[in-house]
Please model this.
Amino acid sequence: MPENFRRLFTQDFSDLEAAVSSWKKLAEALGRTRTDSGRRVTGPLHKANWTGLSATCGFGAMEATESKLGTAQLDAQLITTLLDTLRTKMAAARRRLRTAVADAEAAGHTVRDDGWVEPKQPFAPEHRNDPDHAALQQKANAGLGEFRARIDQALADAETASHQAAELLHRIDPFDLDKRYGGANAQEDATRVAEFAGISQKDIPDGKDPKQAAGWWAALGEDDQRFHLAAFPDQLGALDGLPTTARDQANRTVLDMKLNDYALREGSLGYQERSHFRSLSSLKDRLEKADTGPAHKQQYLLGLSTKGHGRAIVAIGNPDTAKHTAVQVPGTDTQLGNFGGQIDRVNKLQNAAGGWNGGDPKDISTIAWLGYDAPEINNSVITDGRALDGAEDLRNFTHGLRTAHEGERSHLTVLAHSYGSTTAGAADAGGRGLDADDMVVVGSPGLTVDRSDQLHINPKRLWVAAAPDDFISNRTSGLTLGEDPKEPEFGAQRMYVDTNGHSGYWDDNSQSLENMGAIIAGQQPGLGVNS
Model:
């Protein structure tokens, strides 16, 4: 105890501060290396369509390396936060110790080199037999016990912090790069460090109020933001209102974690997990290919889940800086396994909108939003249950886009196909609506309402289209999911299309695609009535 008193009282934390700085730089360097591996190596090789046995082995090795880089980055970030928290706790204990000593000395006590507080003697030794001596001595030393307790507590706090930090450092083991990235041990490490640092997952907003989430994020310091991204990627990736780049970073971490987990259990995966493994691998390939392209073609992973048939949200172009943003909601039987087709469609939409924007798509972001459980081809397609379940999530997402957007308000279009229009209709009818400037519905079986004025969107900015042979719109609309939105009495605007079938609206060189592009760019589409 005497040695601890002297050590803490004179403690210099410069070495600890230097260690924090070094680990922080290492975490940042590992993160850059991991990102650059995808953008400069894996991505270009995917883009070059490298195939064959050598490609299979090569990509497997590179993915393993990127996984280890992710593990090392997480460990380095945890150690950074751990050491910084230790420094803060030790400095606070030193401050309390010095204050207790100063207060004791100001009260007339002597504090020995071992930390013991001597009692005051109000009289000379020869007067100790004075009958009032004991009472006066007790009065003079009334605060003695408090001073001793304060010193003991400061030393105990420092010892506890030091012991806990040492245990955590031993447990993390930053050089064990074969540790499962994103596995139980990594999450346990993150949870323990968070507890030590006084960071609670319960403090992370639930995402139902994007403005609250944005305020919470902005109030965190950069170091705390980095820790949260490393320790709680699942929660942050799904948090509407956060910046696009932060959500993308979190969700790419989740993607890598899931892929690594599947790879380690490949021999024992069930059918659904094997399907997700293939789908997520394909999604990662797409993201890495896009990383090598121009800025307006960069893809951002704004949502990811393997629950059920899976969910994903991918933006082409950054919606936080775009002047025109479009969110497309897909319909029946859309899942992770065929989500790539949705990315292809929004890519076409961005190109089409660019043609109306002076031929420049740089100010346009288009988003494929599979943020709900799209119905299978069964009785779920004739009820509004799936649409109502996904409505709030879609509302939160569009309001989150508004909250995270930088500068002047962007022009926001919500496009919805098939049952996706039912989900978009339910979302816009409820709560505060979608806050969209335009809404386009194609091949719609119904919007859950009977008239356009029951939606928040201006009826003059609600565009409805259906191909003459679209069997969904022509045979099911108006039956169970609200009145037929293409009928004049519904009150929407009719958008001309020249394509066929239920899924031809994105056909290359079609007027259907061009009209959707015009609306996204804030222009007037070609109007007409399809027979």
